[in-house]
């Protein structure tokens, strides 16, 4: 092989400012602007007619599943279309007319592309054929599919051990592709399967498995309509799960109340004008949040403890607050929890969480009387050092109120990627599942590896230290999604080979190993030879998805085909698994899934129409697999930050115009930010006290274990956020998150509580 050169790649791209305009935050979500902007995005990228046709098929029974978030579809979709503004943007990204082809890569080197912003890189279009970046080159060039597969097989064979390869999965892959991928990786001989869950809801998975015996939520969509109280904690549904607002609206119409816990008053949770109803478009809309508890970043445990302490007091005073039958028959550890609560002093907890005491009383009043309670949460709880405890504290409250396993009550971790939950269910994970391994052996006659593999953080370290040499990604944008961007980029660059199965170009295709391959695949919306795939939504329902659009290029392959061909090239004649047939016959793959996993009987048939639910023990109040056969209360401690005078806690969040690392546009409409992403939201009193000024340019700096990390060029925006707290967008701020700072047990990077200093320029 030719000599490899060192490429001069920028890991941040251009950090110059564009054109910032700041207005008051929006007073409501969606409404006319929501519909208008949805249509603008799709028609700009792919033409008005094509876009209307595509939107009408989204989330309908015979259509395709939205490639955006994992919020479930109602059984009777709205006639005005079951989509949201941000789903429409996701479609527009995929349906774009722009192309990354041979001429594009002849014109632009990877060095030049890396100086662009993520927004510009994403807008360059759909990839049309396989490309290779050779070790002595800075330009990608075309390669045939068969040569690409051969090269991957050769490099995998050249490794000293299968554990020197890492197989990442993002959450957009279908169940069929993910199952085949997991099967191949185990047959190859490793459990090195980090996935985007590691950076996302892993803390939920760990906490829920340990307390309720299942790593998923317990509610279904209809439960949200029935609930008496919905608590939305650490989640911004107006932007990230817009169709959830319709469910919250139904809950309110039936008399339910909503408590929101968040450092920011997100407009999506204030007033909602449902774009799927004429009254929503033209009327005043629905007030969603009844009680807003403005918690300090990462002090949810303090706040929940305070709520429980006050609930316990009300019980002592003679009210019926806790569900003692449920607690006695179904749970372990309630007495210990009450004893632990006594150790905390109210004033101390109030000071820590920073919430107004009278507001907390309003929430307590509500919770005393109700038992149909649902807690919804997302990244505001999971991406902290104590992410697992945050969720366990929510489970404590639900268990004490008997709010699990009954209609209108339960846990609702709101998933991110549209099929991240399905990928896990069919076997994408770095840890060992003994039942899965046993079933794989029975069905496919090989011994799957039985030692735990590398997750995202450990995978990055292994590549950095030269212990892993091949990195293969089924989707995603690893370098921009993971923490510590500079370190992660170096880790990937240390590899011999990096491979990405992808629809579009992103920064991970620039920060690559000596050799790099881009394998272009069909998107969700595109026709796949009349075949359909299946996905699982956030509430454990599996259903089909069938693309209808003409593919972006006739050289694309489907994900199951690509995975099967890699496996086939690697094993050659030596495998007793017929990879090529499995990769092309999705019905057969589904049959194999149903042989290996419980709950998928008659899979292909049942996935048609609105689909089927997978078994869920928490929904049935069956805790037989847990210690003593009971759900577990947990003792959790409030976290300590011990901030120095000049330190702040920074949360890194999504703007309204992005899907993770894909930047759709430069606005964050609901927060009143237009034309710029390099902003940091700061409390107006803090700005004054530090002698800073609105719109002043600063750098953000994190110091950890003697190493300084810097994110340059942010404009200060005064905002309603607790003192000593800051907020900025990811991925720009990922350079600040140290690789060694992650949640205990789940290893989720602490993207929502990074301690930083501000330095004026
Ligand atoms: N349009 C769009 N949809 C998406 C995505 C997207 O990027 N764009 N991403 C998808 C993915 S993968 C995921 S995981 C989800 C993410 O969905 P979210 O979790 O809603 O996304 P974030 O922007 O990270 O928002 C976190 C919210 O938590 C709050 N928060 C931060 N720290 C704390 C805290 O300590 N306590 C509390 N109580 N709140 C806190 C923030 O103010 C913010 O409102 O969305 C999915 N859907
Ligand atoms: N600082 C900070 N970091 C974070 C977070 C945060 O809140 N703060 N959030 C974390 C979370 S919750 C998550 S889930 C991760 C996300 O991590 P990833 O899942 O790795 O990142 P995405 O940005 O969702 O990946 C987008 C890329 O997927 C590819 N793609 C799109 N559609 C398809 C498809 O159909 N098939 C294939 N094969 N590829 C496709 C495109 O190339 C696109 O550029 O980021 C995490 N990183
Ligand atoms: Mo996520």
UniProtKB/TrEMBL annotation:
<keyword id="KW-0479">Metal-binding</keyword>
<dbReference type="InterPro" id="IPR041953">
    <property type="entry name" value="YdeP_MopB"/>
</dbReference>
<keyword id="KW-0500">Molybdenum</keyword>
<comment type="similarity">
    <text>Belongs to the prokaryotic molybdopterin-containing oxidoreductase family.</text>
</comment>
<dbReference type="InterPro" id="IPR006656">
    <property type="entry name" value="Mopterin_OxRdtase"/>
</dbReference>
<keyword id="KW-0411">Iron-sulfur</keyword>
<keyword id="KW-0004">4Fe-4S</keyword>
<dbReference type="InterPro" id="IPR037951">
    <property type="entry name" value="MopB_CT_YdeP"/>
</dbReference>
<feature type="domain" description="Molybdopterin dinucleotide-binding">
    <location>
        <begin position="648"/>
        <end position="712"/>
    </location>
</feature>
<dbReference type="InterPro" id="IPR050123">
    <property type="entry name" value="Prok_molybdopt-oxidoreductase"/>
</dbReference>
<dbReference type="InterPro" id="IPR010046">
    <property type="entry name" value="Mopterin_OxRdtse_a_bac"/>
</dbReference>
<dbReference type="GO" id="GO:0016020">
    <property type="term" value="C:membrane"/>
</dbReference>
<dbReference type="GO" id="GO:0045333">
    <property type="term" value="P:cellular respiration"/>
</dbReference>
<protein>
    <submittedName>
        <fullName>Oxidoreductase alpha (Molybdopterin) subunit</fullName>
    </submittedName>
</protein>
<dbReference type="GO" id="GO:0043546">
    <property type="term" value="F:molybdopterin cofactor binding"/>
</dbReference>
<keyword id="KW-0408">Iron</keyword>
<dbReference type="Pfam" id="PF00384">
    <property type="entry name" value="Molybdopterin"/>
</dbReference>
<dbReference type="Pfam" id="PF01568">
    <property type="entry name" value="Molydop_binding"/>
</dbReference>
<dbReference type="GO" id="GO:0030151">
    <property type="term" value="F:molybdenum ion binding"/>
</dbReference>
<keyword id="KW-0560">Oxidoreductase</keyword>
<dbReference type="InterPro" id="IPR006657">
    <property type="entry name" value="MoPterin_dinucl-bd_dom"/>
</dbReference>
<dbReference type="GO" id="GO:0051539">
    <property type="term" value="F:4 iron, 4 sulfur cluster binding"/>
</dbReference>
<feature type="domain" description="Molybdopterin oxidoreductase">
    <location>
        <begin position="126"/>
        <end position="567"/>
    </location>
</feature>
<dbReference type="GO" id="GO:0008863">
    <property type="term" value="F:formate dehydrogenase (NAD+) activity"/>
</dbReference>
<dbReference type="InterPro" id="IPR009010">
    <property type="entry name" value="Asp_de-COase-like_dom_sf"/>
</dbReference>
């Amino acid at each position: 092989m030719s000599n490899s050169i060192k490429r001069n790649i920028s890991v941040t791209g251009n950090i110059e400012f564009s054109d910032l305009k700041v207005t008051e935050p929006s007073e409501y979500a969606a409404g006319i602007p929501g519909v208008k902007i949805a249509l603008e995005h799709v028609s700009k990228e792919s033409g008005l007619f094509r876009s209307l046709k595509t939107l009408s098929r989204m989330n309908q029974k015979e259509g395709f599943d939205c490639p955006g978030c994992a919020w479930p579809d109602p059984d009777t979709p709205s006639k005005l279309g079951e989509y949201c503004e941000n789903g429409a943007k996701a479609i527009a990204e995929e349906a774009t007319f722009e192309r990354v082809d041979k001429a594009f890569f002849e014109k632009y080197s990877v060095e030049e592309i890396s100086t662009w912003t993520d927004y510009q890189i994403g807008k360059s279009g759909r990839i049309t054929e396989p490309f290779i970046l050779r070790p002595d080159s800075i330009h990608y060039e075309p390669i045939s599919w068969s040569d690409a597969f051969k090269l991957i097989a050769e490099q995998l064979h050249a490794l000293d051990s299968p554990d020197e390869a890492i197989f990442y999965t993002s959450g957009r892959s279908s169940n069929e592709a993910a199952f085949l991928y997991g099967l191949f990786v185990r047959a190859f001989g490793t459990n090195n399967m980090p996935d985007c869950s590691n950076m996302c809801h892993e803390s939920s998975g760990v906490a829920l498995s340990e307390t309720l015996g299942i790593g998923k939520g317990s509610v279904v969509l209809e439960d949200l309509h029935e609930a008496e109280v919905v608590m939305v904690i650490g989640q911004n549904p107006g932007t990230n799960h817009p169709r959830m607002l319709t469910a919250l609206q139904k809950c309110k119409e039936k008399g339910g109340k909503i408590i929101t816990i968040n450092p920011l008053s997100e407009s999506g949770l204030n007033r909602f004008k449902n774009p799927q109803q004429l009254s929503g478009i033209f009327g005043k809309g629905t007030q969603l949040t009844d009680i807003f508890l403005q918690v300090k970043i990462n002090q949810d445990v303090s706040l929940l403890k305070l709520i429980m302490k006050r609930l316990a007091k009300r019980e002592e005073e003679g009210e019926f607050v806790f569900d003692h039958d449920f607690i006695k028959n179904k749970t372990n550890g309630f007495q210990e929890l009450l004893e632990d609560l006594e150790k905390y002093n109210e004033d101390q907890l109030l000071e820590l969480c920073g919430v107004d005491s009278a507001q907390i009383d309003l929430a307590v009043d509500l919770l005393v009387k109700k038992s149909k309670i649902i807690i919804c949460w997302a990244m505001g709880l999971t991406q902290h050092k104590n992410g697992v405890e945050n969720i366990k504290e929510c489970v404590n409250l639900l268990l004490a109120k008997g709010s699990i396993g009954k209609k209108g009550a339960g846990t609702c971790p709101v998933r991110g990627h549209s099929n991240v939950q399905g990928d896990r269910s069919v076997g994408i994970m770095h840890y060992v599942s003994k039942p899965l391994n046993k079933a794989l052996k029975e069905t496919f006659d090989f011994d799957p590896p039985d030692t735990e593999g590398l997750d995202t953080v450990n995978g990055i370290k292994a590549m950095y230290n030269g212990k892993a040499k091949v990195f293969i990604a089924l989707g995603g944008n690893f370098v921009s999604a993971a923490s510590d961007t500079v370190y992660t980029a170096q880790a990937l660059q240390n590899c011999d080979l990096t491979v990405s199965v992808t629809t579009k170009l992103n920064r991970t295709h620039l920060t690559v190993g000596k050799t790099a391959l881009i394998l272009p695949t069909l998107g969700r919306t595109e026709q796949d030879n009349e075949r359909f795939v299946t996905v699982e939504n956030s509430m454990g329902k599996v259903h089909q998805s069938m693309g209808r659009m003409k593919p972006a290029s006739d050289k694309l392959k489907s994900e199951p085909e690509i995975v099967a061909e890699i496996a086939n090239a690697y094993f050659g004649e030596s495998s007793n698994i017929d990879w090529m047939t499995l990769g092309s016959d999705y019905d057969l793959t589904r049959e194999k899934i149903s042989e290996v996993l419980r709950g998928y009987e008659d899979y292909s048939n049942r996935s048609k129409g609105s689909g089927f639910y997978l078994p869920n023990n928490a929904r049935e109040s069956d805790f037989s697999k847990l210690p003593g056969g009971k759900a577990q209360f947990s003792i959790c401690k409030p976290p300590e930050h011990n901030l120095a005078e000049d330190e702040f806690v920074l949360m890194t969040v999504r703007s309204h115009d992005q899907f993770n690392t894909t930047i759709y546009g430069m606005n964050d409409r609901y927060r009143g930010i237009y034309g710029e992403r390099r902003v940091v939201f700061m409390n107006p009193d803090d700005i004054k006290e530090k002698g800073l000024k609105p719109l002043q340019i600063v750098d953000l700096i994190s110091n950890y274990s003697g190493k300084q990390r810097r994110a340059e060029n942010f404009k200060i925006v005064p905002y309603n956020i607790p003192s000593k707290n800051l907020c900025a967008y990811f991925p720009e701020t990922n350079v600040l998150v140290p690789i060694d700072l992650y949640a205990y047990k789940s290893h989720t990077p602490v993207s929502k509580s990074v301690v930083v200093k501000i330095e004026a320029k």
